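Tutorial handout. Part one gives the primary structure; part two gives the three-dimensional structure as tokens.
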Amino acid sequence: MGGFLAAIFMRGIPVLQIPTTLLAQVDAAIGGKTGVNLAIGKNLIGSFHQPMAVLIDPGLLGTLPEREYRAGLWEIVKAGVIHEPALFRYLAERSAAVLGREHHAEDRIIADSVRMKAEVVSADEREGDLRRILNFRPHLRPRPGGRDPVHPLFCTARPSPGACGPRSTWPK
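Part two.
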């Protein structure tokens, strides 16, 4: 909301982004895309307004609920899938450190994800072509036989039905 107001007030005023969730640090604060959700749809009113700076402090994530943390991890996994194979490999090989919120792992995955998004947005600021890859939303499906096909990194607030087992087993 703050970014959108900065974009429209007096035809744009400087704004500084200080994201406090993992999802905001690796996605919402990067790229200058601002918007307001309406009852009939998401981001139907919006603008592109680049912030003066984005100040990211991974230390703010220490009190983040597990469910919110994993929502940010999903965005990082997506960055690895669509544009950063080394990040995807790191997530697979170091999943215990990532899920354990070890500082070196958080620093690495945040930096890699932000760099990827900044490169894409720099090449296509207004979502004309390349930036559309950031809208990639894979659909996870359970394997035949009902076995859980999904790594724990993927089980967030709204996985595909059945992909992460019963809702009672999802991270809180």
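Part three, for discussion. The first strand starts at residue 16 and ends at 17. Residues 2-138 form a domain with the Rossmann fold fold (CATH 3.40.50).
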